[in-house]
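Wed. Picked up where I left off yesterday with tRNA-dihydrouridine(16/17) synthase [NAD(P)(+)]. The coffee machine is broken again, so keeping this brief.
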Amino acid sequence: MTVAVPPPPAVPASALYEPRTTMDAAPLQRPPHADMAWEWFRSIGSPKFHVAPMVDQSELPFRLLCRRHGATCAYTPMLHARIFSQDRKYREEMLTTCSEDRPLLVQFCAHEPQHLLAAARLVQDSGVADAIDINFGCPQRIAKRGGYGAFLMDDLPRVESLVRVLAQNLRIPVTAKIRIFPDLAKTVAYARMVEAAGASLVAVHGRLREQKDNSSTRADWDAIRAVKAALSVPVLANGNIRHLGDVGACLSYTGADGVLSAESLLADPALFDVPARASVAVGDVSGRGRWYSAPPLERLSLAAQYMDLVRAHPVPLRMVRGHVHKMVGDWLAEHTDLRDNINRLPPTIQLFCQVRVRVCGGVKEVCVCVYVSRFANDPVLSRHACGGHIHCVTHCRLARCSVAPCPLTSCSFLLLLLIEQC
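Structure written out below (tokens, as returned):
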């Protein structure tokens, strides 16, 4: 169900953009669309686990893979509003979806309100989106040249006009994804302005525009908590969601209504899979916790599922290349000829499937060798060999097939995983 959100009254950006000193300030005035914003949020299931927008990486097959493993909402990749509104080929290539791909937020970047509105209306009229999201967070050089993303933080009246033009002219909600300023009061005032302009949801990436390396920079959950306390519409937290343990820690610390994850999902598309990831160590707000990556053998299974989704829902293969590298990178370090083929040859589904099949074949050879040479007479391990498949330690890297000492033999206990997809 899509709930229409009434346009808010006009509020000048200058009137809202005033320094404030309180960290947990209550909303200045509850915006008139707040109740409708919450009704809409509940109508899409009050999703907590969001696939963040990633250029050429949060495409349909990857969104579906993440949904299969616990994600409850997803963003499209950032789409360029002017090109989207003017180029049918760009629209058909960059925005693909299906009935299982809901709820879905379609994200645009834009400098001119008229281009943003034209693109948003095309999406609204197609009926494929639950909301239109505006990107105010991209920190890359191309965004600076185009005058969009995080570089609109230097032009707050334009930010306000972009949000307001959608809020006043669309039947579906408008949402916004922002970054923070160095000054907390300035960040809170910025978020309030976006809300007052008509945003029905605000996602806060807790890093500065200058902080582009997410792996080395701790996201500021205090800033997200302050924004959540100040706004009346749903707020999502983005930043430092390294594993499932961080999800609970972030929601508890910030009070946010959900979290987004980007780079961590690329390493582990099953990050939000609560049953499968329940044993992952609980995160901490100090930033000392380590990043989590799914075990190499499990990533092979995820890669197989992803390729099946690519076959069912074709997308530009440049997008597929990046996911293949992320999911089977450990094995490509062993099969350097396959790695070179991926980097040199024109991308095809056949090529990527060849990588997965070749790697799986190598894994089974290693496991068979180890099983036969070390464990064939073990009454416990022998129960795990069935149907031509051999279970293997989930955290073991691919070893050369030999009867030489193997990492498997030195484990005090074995975490066994059947590679059913091989």
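Quick read: Residues 192 and 231 are 6 Å apart (CA to CA).
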